[in-house]
Amino acid sequence: MGNAESTDSMASKHRAQSQSPLPGITRVPSVPSVRSDGSSRRCMTDRPPRRSKTCRTRTSRRKVVCSVTGLTLHQKALLTRKWNRMESATVYELGRRMFESIFTEHPHYLAYLDLKGEPNWRNHINFKIHVQ
Length: 132
What we know:
GO terms for molecular function: heme binding; oxygen binding. By secondary structure, the protein is mainly alpha-helical. It has a domain at 87-132. Helices cover 33% and strands 0% of the residues. The longest helix has 18 residues, at 88-105. The N and C termini lie far apart (96 Å).
């Protein structure tokens, strides 16, 4: 009983041959080997040979970071592009807020603008020029 496929699958001509080497029996491959240079098989712990070359040098894998800003060149380019697209009034307001927060946290920095003892340094002309 059964169909023809199941009965034929047990026939010896359709059985898969074992790929493991048997002692004393040498198997002749029907398909030519990829390694035709006669080299012996390598152990699995050996690194396989590299198939493609890379264009990167191994020493420049880390991106160069600016010592002053801590930014990469790509980050600097992105910020420059963003700043150039902003309106000048927005840039002025951001600069004013930044310098106000810096001089509020560190009032001794006001000496660089000759505003060391000035109580109303936010409205002084030196501060406004520095913000611009």
